[in-house]
Amino acid sequence: MNLTERKTKILHAIVRNYLETGEPVGSRTISKYTDLNLSSATIRNEMADLEEMGLILQPHTSAGRIPSDKGYRVYVDEMLREKEQEVDRMQEMLLEKEEKLEKLLQQAARQLALSTNYASMVSLPRAVGNKLKFIQLSRLAHDQLLITVVIEGNIIKNRVIDLDDLEEVLDEQTMLKLNILLNTRLNGLSVEEISLGLIAALKSEAGVHSEIIAQVIDAAAESIRADEGLEIYTSGANNIFRYPELADQQKASELINTFEEKADLRSLAEESLQATAEDNAIQVYIGAESPVQTMQNCSVVTATYDLGDGLRGTVGIIGPKRMDYDKVVSSLKTLTYQLDQIYKRA
Amino acid sequence: MNLTERKTKILHAIVRNYLETGEPVGSRTISKYTDLNLSSATIRNEMADLEEMGLILQPHTSAGRIPSDKGYRVYVDEMLREKEQEVDRMQEMLLEKEEKLEKLLQQAARQLALSTNYASMVSLPRAVGNKLKFIQLSRLAHDQLLITVVIEGNIIKNRVIDLDDLEEVLDEQTMLKLNILLNTRLNGLSVEEISLGLIAALKSEAGVHSEIIAQVIDAAAESIRADEGLEIYTSGANNIFRYPELADQQKASELINTFEEKADLRSLAEESLQATAEDNAIQVYIGAESPVQTMQNCSVVTATYDLGDGLRGTVGIIGPKRMDYDKVVSSLKTLTYQLDQIYKRA
DNA sequence: GTTAGCACTCGATAGAGACGAGTGCTAACA
DNA sequence: TGTTAGCACTCGTCTCTATCGAGTGCTAAC
Questions:
Q1: pLDDT > 90: percent of chain B
Q2: A238 and B257: CB-CB below 8 Å?
Q3: What is d(CA B293, CA B291) in angstroms, rounded to the nearest whole number?
Q4: pLDDT of A224
Q5: Backbone angles phi, psi at B187, to 5 degrees
Q6: HSE, side-chain direction, 13 A CA sphere, residue A245
Q7: DSSP string across A175-221
């Protein structure tokens, strides 16, 4: 698809105008508010061409034109190329280093929604390596053990297991031995690397306490696996009411549900993490391009942040197709940049 | 306020009918669909009285009547008295004991929303005692310590602290000593009981490592305090779209925001926990009775569950004023009953 | 290739009228 | 005295129609 410069200009004008107003834009508007100095009639001819190419469409015969998904796509691609390096300041985003990453990310989601007037989502980072860093067994009560598992990136999981009454009481000495055994044999391994053979070996070393070892490994593995579902924070879901094309009851209800249930957002984050695995570029899903059914009328823009230590997550904006792509991309770039800076250890 | 039996019957008929249809109910309807055998004219007279008493009101001159907040209140009070003991079966609520309390509660919220067609909220339990049960210091890396704090009710908090480079390296022996020190002196105490004097004593006992003790206590205290904000799960927020009186954009947007931000829900849960401190009865907030501004057009019904071990939390239903109070109360009672059963240790 | 002009389309908006549910009031009845 | 039938009245809702105007495609002229 090769567009003449004039067609490109007209398409951009249509998209931009539609982004602002949300109304179909007519030939006269274009002719008046661009520096093309063309009459509306000429614009009309060009528009007819653009429509034939599937870049814009008419909601009804006597209405102006609105961009099609394909049209947005062309616009966005163009825009991304230009924006490549420019990183807008998200000035007031006061990222004083919060103690808790969770709080920070929640704050980030809120800030994102506030500054763009779209809905936002942020995923907690996922530890890609999933390597065990530390395991600790402690006695909580005479029949309860606390297992603390630390995964690469200082993600900490706890679990309490109840001991059978049959189990003989564990004395301090034994606890210490078990702890040492577990740490020396398992540290640095990922779940995939913990083979059945290794488990068997551990069990035999543990002797009478083999049952405990089994439970610990089970718990540890599950702790790590439980991390597979990305935790998602959202904000500004109610912003969808700002855009009539999303605000009707049917669509709004579905979207709200998507935001509350989060399962779809999770897979969206997942997908975008995959997609941007190598270059941490921006992903843009326009309308039907989105993997989420309920977002057929939305556009979704996502970016990936990288805290180092194998911790990567997704931030995203969900809004109407007539989204201010420029601003959204800037905001996301700034945010991911800042997150990267804050947490990347020197 | 003393109502004749006939007035009571008519009021109930109006409320019930309005709950079903959502339409103002006229005198003729009442006359036809009750066993009162009165003409519509008589009903009209009674209705005029009820309106004068502020129990029902007319949206406009030629419309039927709808219950006022006060009217709902009378109806609900009546209903609660009758329902006192009856616990409906929430038949399909398949509460196979989930491992994770979080998952279970989330599931409960979902189930609640599904079975009632209203929005639901469930708070994680709060440890009312806040007594320290166990503290564990572990070395993660040469300059990082992991603090694990267990509060009564097996609520576990973790925290990583970075050691100053100045700090001399801690050997195994010292770690053990510190752990013993912390556990012997702090276990069984609540935050309020940890006095400055106690801290000073601990510090002096710790000698050169007093700085670490300070940090640990700080972290422990903060971990516990961080628990003060109740964690809230919601489900079925989109159910508000089922009820026209809540579904207009302004109201819906505000409600959705309340559900997403959760701060208001948190204080609601808080308040209801307070209110039902002694008897774990049902709380009903009708319209303006609710402490949450955005819920002036809703009714909120909450109940408290008690897992034993000092763990209490709130479950609630948020819906239109014309809520099926009967059903909601039953559902909540069943749910809390089941939660109590599942977790209460024999 | 560009533009002016014109007939045409079609959604949006507003007003008029019909409809009907529901009321309050009055007068008659048991 | 309480209950009821009847009737005029109110007012929101729905439907229909007319009007308006933004925008188009096409043609002919520049």
A1: 34
A2: yes
A3: 6
A4: 67
A5: -60, 140
A6: 19
A7: HHHHHHHHHHHHTT-BGGG--HHHHHHHHHHHGGGHHHHHHHHHHHH
CB B299, CB B320: distance < 8 Å: yes
Interface contact flag, A238 B247, Cβ < 8 Å: no
The packing angle between helices B249-261 and B263-275, to 10°, is: 70
Mean pLDDT of B324-337: 89
Statement: the CB of B42 is under 7 Å from strand D: yes
- Cα separation, B322 vs B243, in Å, equals 9
- Rounded-to-integer distance, Cα A194 and Cα A143, Å: 27
- Cα distance from A134 to chain B (closest Cα, Å)? 7
Greater pLDDT, A333 or B119: B119
* A157 and A226 Cβ atoms separated by less than 8 Å: yes
Residue type present at position A319: G
Choose the closest CB to A253 out of B133, B154, B238.
Answer: B238
- pLDDT score for B99: 53
Handedness of CA B292, B293, B294, B300 (dihedral sign): positive
Q: Which segments in chain A show pLDDT lower than 50?
A: 87-98, 345-346
Q: Give SS3 for A241.
A: helix
Residue of B nearest to A243 (CA): B249
Continuous H helices in chain B: 5-21, 27-33, 40-52, 69-83, 101-116, 172-186, 196-206, 210-226, 244-247, 249-261, 263-275, 325-343
* Angle between helical axes of B249-261 and A249-261 (0-180°, round to 10): 0
SS3 category, A160: strand
Cβ contacts below 8 Å, chain A against chain B, sum to 79
Rg, chain B, Cα only: 27
The strand pairing partners of B119, in sequence order, are B318
* Cβ distance of A140 and B148 shorter than 8 Å: no
Pick the closest to residue B321 from B251, B242, B245 (CA basis). Answer: B245
Report which residue type is found at B24: P
pLDDT at A228: 62
Q: What tokens appear for B300 in the block?
A: 């909120």
- Angle in degrees, CA A80, A256, B300, rounded to 5: 150
Average pLDDT on B225-242 reads 84
**How does pLDDT run across B158-197, given as a tens digit for each residue?**
888 777 655 566 777 888 888 888 888 888 887 677 777 8
Residues in chain A: 346
Q: Give the pLDDT score at A95.
A: 44
Nucleotide D23: closest residue by CA–C1': A62
Q: What value does the mean pLDDT of chain B take?
A: 83
**Confidence at residue B280, expressed as pLDDT on a 0 to 100 scale:** 60
Partnered with residue B334 across adjacent β-strands are none
Would the CB atoms of A138 and B136 count as touching at under 8 Å? yes
User: Which residues of chain B are within 8 Å of residue A132 when distances are taken between CB atoms?
Assistant: none
- pLDDT interval class at B333 (50, 70, 90): confident
> Tell me, in Å, how far CA of B246 is from C1' of D12?
20
**pLDDT at residue B249 in the model:** 83
Judged against a pLDDT cut of 60, whether residue B85 lies above it is answered with no
Contact A191, A130 (CB under 8 A): yes
